[in-house]
Amino acid sequence: MTIVPVFRSRIGVLALALVAFALGAAAPRATAQVAWGIPLKVDNPTDIPRVWEPVASGIAVPQGTGITNPNAVLGLKNSAGVDVPVQFKVLSRWGGTRDDVTKEVKWVLVEFFASVPANGTAYYGIGFTPRTQGGITVSDQPNVMVVNTGPSQFVFDKTDFSFFEQVFVAGQNVLDGPGRLQLRDVWQNLVDPIQTELIVEEAGDVRTVVRQKGELPGVGLQFTIRYYFWSGRRDVKVDFRLENDGGYGHLAGTGLVTEHAYFSDLALALKVAGSSNTADVATGNALHPAPGSFEIRQSYTAPYTNLDMLSGFLFTESSSTGGLANWGFRHEGAMGLNADGGAISIAVDRFWQNFPKAYEIGGRNVRTALWPAFGNGPEYGGVYGNNTAPNIDSLAATEYRFEGGRWKTYTLSIDFREPGATFAPADVHSAALRLEKPLMAQLPLWWPFQSFAFSQPLVERRDWNKTSNLRYEQMVQVLADDDAADNHPNWGKVGLPAFRNRGGTYGGNQFYGWTNFGDVVWGDGFCSGHYDLPWGVLINWYRTGDYKFFDVGRDMVNHRRDYDQFHSTDPSANKRGGQFYEKGWTHGNYQAPTPSHTWVNALVLYYVMTGDEGAREAAVEVGDFIFRQHPENWNGLYGARILGWQIEGLMHLWSYLGDAAYLQRAQLAIINWEQHELAQGANGVVMNGGWNPAHAQSWMQAIVMSAIGKYTLATNDTAFLPLMDRMANYFQNDVIGTLPNGPSFARSKGFVWERFDGMNHWDASAHHKWATIDALTYGAMALHRQDLMQNARLLWESMTRYHQASAGDSSLVDFNDPSTYDRIGFKLAQYPGSETKVMSNMALWGQTFMAADLLWDQQF
């Protein structure tokens, strides 16, 4: 008997519940926030009211609803029962790709307008009702494309590149000529962009997305710009992505030459219409009347102390007429330009975190300098070279070095107003806050987990009555919240944000800057998001509803999507699409991408969470990378994790993207594993013959076990249950060294063996209990074996209390005495320098257990 039907029966209950909402029934397990439909909650994490503001959030739809076209059957009402314009974009379907209209929808992006009080919450009801439409239209003419939102019309040239050709507000064009992308090469020559694509990527009446692509000839760079238009609004969100599709020849095994690009600066330029050559400038705290030229510059200097990276930031606001107008440490990243022919405000998300940055204003011209002329770098000093190492790339000391295979995306919000209207400082400040903290919407926390909409069993945070679960939730919380950490006498409360701000384990490491922000330093350099740490953070927004997880996690997944993946399009680059390796001080420059260090779950989760098409594009690249590595032909060498991570990646891709080819390749890879296992004696383990002596590493075998478990639970395919049974016996007999033993007031912590050669065990480990717990959990769920679940529970009780214990610690401790527990924080007393591995392993391999624990007791 397997436990798989338990999931399916609960999904059926949800489907019936959703149908009931068509009759006006209130949502189950919800308070009276809405009188109709499923409650959709929107939190405002800022101290300003958010009025009729766009929301785009991914929500899960259970299997069994019969919904194939949500725009035809679903609608939205506010808490007073008034219809709200809404649009649904299908992101994922059950058992098929998103364009297969015969399949039921699984994840949809709900796009609507919300009004939420400052630091408050608003509720909306979603259910079966005719949707209220918006008012966007697109006119696709031979030479121009015009997007009409109602109050504004945005014109794009189809024959030549421009960054907005014209913008009409109240019938008046508020631009004096087309906007430009201005890049200067190392010889200070302006490079004229070539437009290669202009299409409507998402056509809708509430939201429309236009995608524009181009090349920067002679420099070796490309770009993708996405413009997000909303019905009834004059502001536009813009994602600008700079790309280098060339090779990274420093990496052994790529067979590529080095194709880095160098340039002096890059800016997006707009000129406001008007008869006067002057304009007023508004910043978040002041209005500067006709300052002539004006510059906002965000830079970084040496910090006051290596334990306070934030102290090194410096910004200035200066004008030609008044000199230094303002200065400070971290600029909010927004400005407004008021001319007699119109007005523009511009905000750049994560402005100071991605230093250097600037706004350069001259009269009615404004340049948003994403890579300003006063900057350079990263100064490449070799594999482990940083800015203090001898510079072996002299160009990087004066110019920007944009390495082969990298992306970098910036998000801007641009608002346009008609002649006579202006932006006040309060408007500019509000624009910065709204971009920094976009509104997100959630169904009840339990909903997506009981829909089995993720690629693995998970459960929302609850008021647990178990010390172990409460301890684990605290460990998870420190990934986004410093206050969740225990106070350490030597360094205080250090969660992941404080770990970044203090400069890492020992201080002095720069987590900020356009190449660094979103990645985390560990003992061997930047980790490139290893062990899918971005997923470990992001998933907890769904689990907890705590906005901090989204706030921290989106920065991490953006870096993972852009800078931590080898985006080369060179057909000879066999490693393209892989994740950059975890070692090296320039984000994975130690060796070529490899399947043993490539994860994809964060990318596909972020895609269904936000509808981010860039994350989907990167995920598809990962799938292609795995296919080129041919896991179905893996030779058994160099560690089982090579195959395990590929199977797991394929299962995540299939779950969210729905392409059956992913599932088929995962099945073939599991068959390959079983053939190796059978050939070696059918003992549930595959020895690596490339090691001397030939042996298995338990945590790598655990990765395979968990991946096969994901396949089995997701497909109901029972073909591999005998294999899982044999693997489970291997874990029981040859991985678990000792289980926690003794009465609760005097119990051992237990340990697992890391290595096994068929006869001998060695290298006892405490840390690898996380992987063992996960493997036992999947075995218990698939095989319904009580002994596996019991042992997982015993290890869980120990690991959540003593996660920093040494494997050699044989002392007996009181499991009931909190004073004996290890301190919880991102900075570790044990294993310093390995925080990213310890904490990412915790987040990666701990979350499924709690779902299984509840399922075992039929409490899910």
Helix percent reads 25-40%
Give the number of DSSP strands.
Answer: 37
What fraction of residues sit in β-strands? 25-35%
Q: State mean pLDDT (0 to 100 scale).
A: 94
What order do the strands of the largest sheet run in, or round the barrel if closed? Answer: 14-15-16-17-30-26-25-20-21
Q: Spans with pLDDT under 50 lasting ≥5 residues?
A: 1-31
- Major sheet: 9 strands, antiparallel
Structural category: alpha+beta
Count helical runs: 17
- What is the straight-line distance between the termini? 19 Å
| Outline type | globular
Cα-atom radius of gyration: 27 Å
Overall description:
The protein has 17 helices and 37 strands. By secondary structure, the protein is an alpha+beta fold. The strands form 8 sheets. Strands 14-15-16-17-30-26-25-20-21 form a 9-stranded antiparallel sheet, covered by helices on one side. An 8-stranded antiparallel sheet has the order 13-12-19-28-27-22-23-24, with no helix packed on it. It has a 5-stranded antiparallel sheet with strand order 7-8-9-10-11, with no helix packed on it. α7 (533-544) crosses α17, α9 (601-610) runs antiparallel to α10 and α15 runs antiparallel to α16. The protein is globular, with a radius of gyration of 27 Å. The chain starts with a helix and ends with a helix. 55% of the residues are buried.
